[in-house]
Amino acid sequence: MNQREAAPSAADERVLQVVAALARELHPRRAVRTVTLDTRFDRDLGFDSLARVELMLRVERATGRALPEEMLARAETPRDLIDALLAAPRAAPAPAAAAVPPAPSPAGVAEPSQATTLLDVLEWHARLHPEQVHIVLAQERGAGLEEQSITHAALLRAASAAAAVLQAHGLQPGDTVAIMLPTGADYFSAFFGVMLAGGIPVPLYPPLRASQLEDYLRRQAGILSNCQARILVTMSEAKAAARLLMTHAPGLRLVVTADELQDAGARFERPRVNADDLAFLQYTSGSTGSPKGVMLTHANLLANLRAMGPAVQASSADVFVSWLPLYHDMGLIGAWFSSLYYGVRLVAMSPLAFLGRPSRWLWAIHRHRGTLGAGPNFAYELCVRKVEDSEIEGLDLSSWRLAFNGAEPVSADTIAAFSRRFARYGFAPTSMAPVYGLAECCVGLAFPPLGRGPLVDSIDREVLARDGRALPLPPEDPRALRVVACGQALPDHAIRIVDEAGHEVGERMEGRLRFKGPSATRGYYRNPEATRELLRGEWLDSGDLAYTVNDEIYITGRAKDIVIRAGRNLHPQEIEDAIGGIAGVRRGCVAVFGSHDPRHGTERLVAVAETREQEPMALEALRARIEETVMFMIGEPPDEVVLVPPHSVLKTSSGKLRRQASRQLYERGEIGRAPSGAALQALRFAWSGALPQLRRSLRAGVALLYAGYAWSVFWAVAVCTLLGVIVLPGLSRRRKLGQLAARLIVGGTRTPFLVHGAENLPVSQPCVVVSNHASYADALALLAAFPFGFRFAFLVKRELAARWAARVLLERTGMLPVERVDIQRSVQDAKVAAQRLRDGDSLVVFAEGTLRRTAGLHPFHLGGFEAAAQARVPVVPVAIRGTRTVLRGDQWFPRRAPVSVAIGAPVPPPASADPFGAALVLRDAARAFILRHCGEPDAAA
Question: What is the CATH number of the domain that holds 800?
Fold first, then answer.
């Protein structure tokens, strides 16, 4: 970092202020990035040639120095201008530029507070702290330990390589890409690679057990179909299973391995990514039903990270040791993204490494002096029950200042047992931090005060079940239900508890937890019905039941999991915990749910428990103990106890019970049934996708036939038109021939075509027709829409004249070629265009400059508008809709789709003596009309 970058001078600041002011003036609706010495005028700020001319003038006025002419073309950044100013002579006195607030500088900033996207965060760290270790991958190899360090710069390089390969495979901005990879370097680079390429990552968990292959494939197929993923990134070992998914996911076109994404020689084009763009889709774990894709924007994620960080006093001095899976919000956002944002070192382990030997997590905290760690309640329970004293001799956990416990109901017994067990190894009981969050709020919603430790409330379970009141009882009372507090809502977020009518209830009254805040999702991806259930005005329904005491949140269960029996609300979690404590039952592998009983109009209480017992007498004795335990708890036995072998109770990828799915298996009589072999499951799954695959093949064949037919029509008309343009005398006749040819192509290809507002074109006087540019078919759409007798000339890029046929059309139809690269030539072309207008010709301009594959209306260049201002002629805005579907940029496969052309009323030039100011007024008016009618989002916002 040079001296000026670390501390910009007063002269530097003046130039940065001028650049920032012009950027805001040119793009008033866009959140302009912080302007630094190395901000690029074209890529970062969207300055075209005329905007650069205006910038030079303003810089000269602000600094009192004359810039050399060549800087108009050479200057790419403010630094280039400043270097030229140092050697420039002092100019004649000029009026002072208007004062604007100074652009903030990243120098000395402890976190990327100006970042608007996750990509900004990574690039900020890679620029300022390139060699700082971001991730340490810790992997057990036999008796030893292998660790791999990943710096910010290395992650950005690997992600850039992955982005280039994905773009080479046809990934377009806004496309979804599923990532089915285990924890490893490939996951991190693939995730950000998708983002850098403009795609939307969709994390999936990789297959684990062959015995559940069919259930796994069906769940992933449902996610892939919903998100319409075009590409699936996976590991080599899972490629065969991944290809089976293609028969059930219509949009999935490519399965690629992580190794295939690393091509160091490939280059990619970085699309613009905005704060309100989707960052990724987080599919809920499906513990209460079908998985749903939570839409999370960059703004949502950064708001959540910026709220959680101060709540835990996160800093670059922290070390986060995590085994949490990266396909789950707690691991992805809570561990990785938060570590990235605050410069925390992340020590990442495989979830399987932890599950196989929980002591590995504790030893990793010891070795790396971890300060932060997180896990669901079962992780702490696993450490209590599975870690032997002999495994942890010499263990030191004194560095562990915060142990987050969330993602599932927190057990008061578990956190007490963990604190007791590991206190002699340096773990402080005040470090345990029960938290509350959900994917619909990114990950975090409520955190407890630092250093307080767990807060447990003992209440009467009978009163809670009967009346929904959290009536306090002494902890030793046998009727007491112990509920753990999860803290208070994060800053700028709010929580309230409401009854079934939506009215807020008082303290110690159970109800549905609703929340709002900047981290809240706007809904579920392509699932309007579920979104309607989620949104309640400005509030979102969490689906959780809770009560409050002194603003502390106490979670009592899931609303959909409640079993209603004889007017009582029974919470399955407490019953499951009690059954799990019986000898012979696998703890954490019990599902309690209600099954509707139509004869009695209530629900049957069913308990499904895993056990390794096989002897009939032992099973009967175990069933009796379960009935006795439930009878003691709720005053009546369960209607049915189902004992099943290990791995029969369905769980989500994060280990949560799938009660509703288990209920469905029970009602179909399939619970506990021995699974088919993996080969048979794969065959059954593939067979069920054969018919949809046949339909898709048929549709693809029809599309191919239409494409061939459309090109036949086009070339037949185009060849005849070219010959006619060559031989026909008179510019007017040749223009009419071009319009007739366009109408023949539109009709011959049977394209539904509508024109609105044709009467707005001023046939008797010149104007500038300004249109959006979405496809190569746009020119045909305009030609077909223009009335005969309208005198016009297209402004086209000069490069087209390099080909013989295009050059003939340019010369014989009066088109006006303009320069895009040579800035001085471009300014001269604007003057020529203004003269053509004065001579009576109308000009047709694609104001975006060039077409892009990305959907959206991009910033407009000023050339056509300044020509209109100089010639004092109106601008007619034209919005073309549908051509991007007919023929997307950079591809030559036409499809049949409706096309419409909306022609707006002429916009007269304002009575301003300043052509630049008048051009801005004309541009804003035309762009507003086109944005309303083109059917695409604002890519400049």
Answer: 3.40.1130.10
Query: Whose CA is closest to 305, among 485, 495, 147, 444?
Result: 444
Q: What is the pLDDT of residues 771-828, one digit of tens each?
A: 999 888 998 999 999 998 888 888 877 656 566 666 777 677 777 776 554 445 555 6
Residue 597 inside a domain? The answer is yes
d(CA 251, CA 257): 18
| pLDDT, position 4 | 46
- Domain termination residue (choose one: 66, 86, 106): 86
Report yes or no on 599 lying in a domain.
Answer: yes
Taking only the tens place, the pLDDT of each residue in 419-451 is 999 999 999 999 999 999 999 999 999 999 998
3-state secondary structure of 27: coil
**CA distance linking residue 670 with residue 387, whole number of Å:** 35
3-state secondary structure of 72: helix
Q: What is the maximal distance between C-alpha atoms in the chain? A: 104
32 and 10 in one domain?
Answer: yes
Domain count, the chain: 3
Q: Are residues 807 and 895 in the same domain?
A: yes
671 and 759 co-located in one domain: no
Backbone angles phi, psi at 169, to 5 degrees: -85, 5
Beta-bridged to residue 511, according to DSSP, are 546
Q: Are residues 571 and 679 in the same domain?
A: yes
> Does 803 share its domain with 921?
yes
Between the CA of residue 799 and those of 792, 802, 818, 827, what are the distances in Å? 20, 6, 9, 17
Range of the domain at 30: 3-86
Same domain, 645 and 734: no
745 membership: H or E segment, kind and range:
helix 731-748
List the structure tokens of 387.
Answer: 């870690």
For residues 776 and 914, state if they share a domain.
yes
Considering the domain boundaries, does residue 433 fall inside one?
no
Bridge-based pairing of strands 278-283 and 293-297 is antiparallel
pLDDT band at 410 (very low <50, low <70, confident <90, very high): confident
Over residues 633-669, the pLDDT tens digits come to 776 788 889 998 888 888 766 667 778 778 777 877 7
- Give whole-number Cα distances, 760 to 526, 769, 902, 903, 909, in Å: 38, 11, 10, 7, 16
Q: Which residue has the tokens 């956190």?
A: 415
> Is 65 within the bounds of a domain?
yes
Pairing of strands 511-516, 563-565: unpaired
3-state secondary structure 356-421: HCCHHHHHHHHHHCCCEEEECHHHHHHHHHHCCHHHCCCCCCCCCCEEEECCCCCCHHHHHHHHHH
Are 837 and 764 contained in the same domain?
yes
**Distance separating alpha carbons of residues 489 and 570, to the nearest angstrom:** 27
Q: Could you give the C-alpha distances from 236 to 40, 182, 202, 260, in angstroms and in order?
A: 40, 12, 19, 10
